[in-house]
Amino acid sequence: MKAPRSVSLTVNGDALSGDASPRMLFSDFLRDVLGKTGTHVGCEHGVCGACTVIVDGVAVRSCLMFAVQAEGADVKTVEGLADGDELHPLQKLFSEHRALQCGYCTPGMLMIAIDLVNSSDSLSEQDIKVGMSAALCRCTGYEGIIKAVAAYAEQVHGKPIKRENDNG
Amino acid sequence: MVDTMPSYIGRSVVRREDNRLLKGAGTFVGDMKLEGMVHVAIVRSQQAHARINSVDLEAARNADGVVLALAGAELKDVLPPISGMQVAAPKGWRDGMDPHIEIPDQTLVPYDKLRYVGEPYALVVAGDRYMAEDAAELIEGDFEPLPPVANAEVALDAEALVHDHLPGNIAATLHAKKGDGEAALATAPHRLKRRYFHHRYAAMPMECRGVVAEYDSRTDSITVWSSTQVVHWVRREVANALGMPEDRVRVVAPDVGGGFGGKGHVYPEDILIAYLAKRLGRPVKWLEDRHEHLLNAAHSRDNLFDIEVGYDDDGRISVVKNYFLVDSGAYSPVGAAIAGNSIAHFMGPYDIPHYEADCKVMMTNRTPNAPYRGAGRPEVAFAMERSIDLIANELGLDPAEVRFRNMIQPEQMPYAVGLPYRDGVMIEYDSGDYPEALRKALDGIGGLDAFRARQKEALADGRYLGLGLGCYVEGTGIGPFEGATVKIDSSGKVMVATGACPQGQGHETAFAQVAADIWNVDIDDVVVTLADTSHVTMGYGTIASRSAVTASGAIKDSSDKVKEKVFAIAANVLEASESDLELRGGSVGVIGVPEMSMTLKEVARAALPGWIHQRPEGIEAGLEGTAYYEPPTVTWAYAANAAILEIDAQTGVVKIENYVEVHDAGTLINPGIADGQVKGGLVQGIGGGLFEELSYDEHGQLMTGSFMDYLLPTASDVPPINVIHTETPSPRNSFGFKGLGEGGAIAPPVVIANAVCDALKSFGAEINSTPVRAEQILNILDAGVAAAE
After folding, report:
1. Do B736 and B730 form a contact (C-beta atoms < 8 A)?
2. Percent of residues, chain B, with pLDDT higher than 70
């Protein structure tokens, strides 16, 4: 086993550092070393999306990245969404639209949705379905998730999203 | 004065679970970190069937950070197996099902032979998970391969035996009868014989399983945190295995990331991790990874049916004979329960005078089979609902019409089925209007006639549209019991604890609604504790669509005990008659006299033991009551499904245009939660009908051991779904509740198969197995083209 490296990064605005062996997954580093257990691990092979976090502005699967690759990165995790007791608008919409049941996939879903909405200025319902297919939910059947993300996109983009049954 | 609270039951109250889960502030087993904790990696069989000659642990023991490495032989005389015969079979059930059951015990870590790919044979404990896995790779076993018993069908005649004491690889047989099936078949004007296969898939929660245990030597007690649906069952097995009193074992299911039945029984790891924590005197953690989960967490379904149906010229069914095999894998953790469900639910909402069922629960070299959302019902709904469509085809009738002609009419309620349920009570459907549910479902897809006209037009354009129907009934809220303890302490809060173990169902919210109504208090004054054995002495857990009925019943019964005291004490303090008192908005007061009342907080203080209590004579101190609700029998939820799909003739891919389920689970506690339960179930059913498959090769190797191969539905795969809830109260409990949770998953596989066959009716082909594959559809289309040429 290779000697651990020190990894320094910013997580939700806080400068943090910790030791990681070169093979340590970033998901394990976040959870076990930095104690950010809000990021969940569902498959460890990049399919389920539960471990998604935002690294330097882009949604990535933290189980497909090594901790040492996060050196100097600016990372946002689910713990950084709410402002104290005040939930992030997307979190509120998730509750309102019943977009979660067991809550295990939810952190990944939230981070994927934020990246999806913020990296575009216009989304259709189909775009949202395809975008949110980056993660698996076994409880809800996705309807609430799609509705919540659509409502969030409407808030952020300031216009209604295009629905499948719209003409033209 | 305080106003009476409005009723919370029936309102889509926002879930109190949401806040912590949305913030990533929930606590799942994997999130737990205890001082000095060590980590376990389990070494699992790569062969389906093999004799263990030896296991070499030497290299692992010398590896970095290893605390302990052991194989099955070391545990042989230390830890007893999990008994195969745990599930009680009441007399009424035995009388009606003629069971012969020899479910084998499950050795926690086998030392003599391995019976499925994924079965543990050794384990390593190390300082962290990485080191544990490194060391696990160093463990070498010397195994002698044995011929695999690859599936249930070959198991009967296989020379190889999965368990040496079970000839023919039969672990259980059941036989049930209503009327005279043979005679009815002999005289039936028409007979239909078919073989149906419902394939193997599984619950697949997003959180894999996991266990953390910590031993406390001062009190000789142990705490186990397990991602389970049955904390009390785990406690009993851990206590039994470790030779400890149950009182010294506490089992907690913290936040659980989905279960759906797959976490609904005791697994070897629940006991092993507890044992290791006690032996090592350190906290021990084991987390299943996804590959392990696919190999080792219970699989489900995998039933083969040979069916014969007798019917007349009008399509009225007089008799069904149902012979089926359950491929139970190497063990059967919940005994013959799935098979019993299958037998009991076969006739569904239909009035069929004669029925005969024969079942064999087969042992094979596959992962053990245990209940998963539906638990024997999707399988028989497939066989029954396919048969109805085939009868309709034979007679040139619409499948909807054949269903209407055979359905139990509302005036026949309660309807005696003529078979016993698993609780030993003869089945009597309690309430409902089955034909109305089907009518509503057909209305939901825009009407039958309108669809048939559209289908015809589409076909003229070379497009294949199909309508699939599927109806079912579901026994819910099964006993034997659920426990609850209700307390009001000097804070005045109503504290409710039950044996229910949620995995995403929103129980903290739903049971707060129930308790708030029982006590007429603000919902924020109800504190709910779940899935923790230290709060309820005896409990059962959340499986089998049971908690809404059984935990609510227990909360009510325990509350009733506490209420007696509350009224007696309040009457004493207020100098009023108990019969003049009412609960209103967190207080007890004299009816019609708003100023004469005292708060529950004041009552709780008056109830305290000691010098200044205000209890009347004969009333014991404290406001606390425990009750174990034993339901008289199950309540019967039901549903009708209708879906329209279109087949892409180029690719064979089906696109579901519209899926409607009319679902009735009696009075709903929280309609928003109920809606989510049904929709989530439907999407699992669609996954099972189209994508998900635990596929084995002839050597007993699992071919779908990762999420690259085991395909779960994604957001893009989900069609528009419309769930219409009707609420026919059950007469079997004071709330009118029926259970809910599994139902959604029952119908989609057969609805999809029926719809595809309907779309391809002109080709005359049948799809009588699941999953429905694009390749199969292309074959039907190609054969049709070939026949036409």
Report:
1. yes
2. 99
Count of alpha carbons within 13 angstroms of residue B207, beta-carbon side: 35
User: CATH 1.10.150.120 residue ranges in chain A?
Assistant: 89-157
pLDDT tens digits along B460-474: 999 999 999 999 999
- Residue that the structure tokens 């093979």 belong to: A23
ipTM of the complex: 0.98
- A139–B676: do the CB atoms touch at under 8 Å? yes
Q: Is A4 on the interface with B (CB under 8 A)?
A: no
**Rounded distance, CA B502 to CA B207, Å?**
14
CA angle B208, B214, B217 (to 5 degrees): 165
**Which chain A residues in 69-128 lie under 8 Å from chain B, judged by CB atoms?**
77-79, 81-82, 87, 91, 94-96, 98, 100-107, 110, 128
Task: Give yes or no for B212 touching A (CB within 8 A).
Answer: no
Please report which confidence band the pLDDT of residue B765 belongs to, taking 50, 70 and 90 as the band edges: confident
- Per-residue pLDDT, B241: 97
Indicate the fold that domain A89-157 takes in CATH. Answer: DNA polymerase; domain 1 (1.10.150)
DSSP B115-139: -STT-EEEEEEESSHHHHHHHHTT-
Average pLDDT over residues B364-380: 97
Q: What is the pLDDT of residue A167?
A: 45
Q: Quickly list H helices, B496-546.
A: 507-519
Say yes or no to pLDDT of A166 above 90: no
What residue ranges define each of the domains in chain B, with the CATH number in brackets? 18-24+479-629 (3.30.365.10), 38-169 (3.90.1170.50), 209-287 (3.30.365.10), 428-463+637-789 (3.30.365.10)
User: How confident is the model over B151-169, as a mean pLDDT?
Assistant: 96
Q: Is B709 on the interface with A (CB under 8 A)?
A: no
Task: Report pLDDT for A2.
Answer: 81
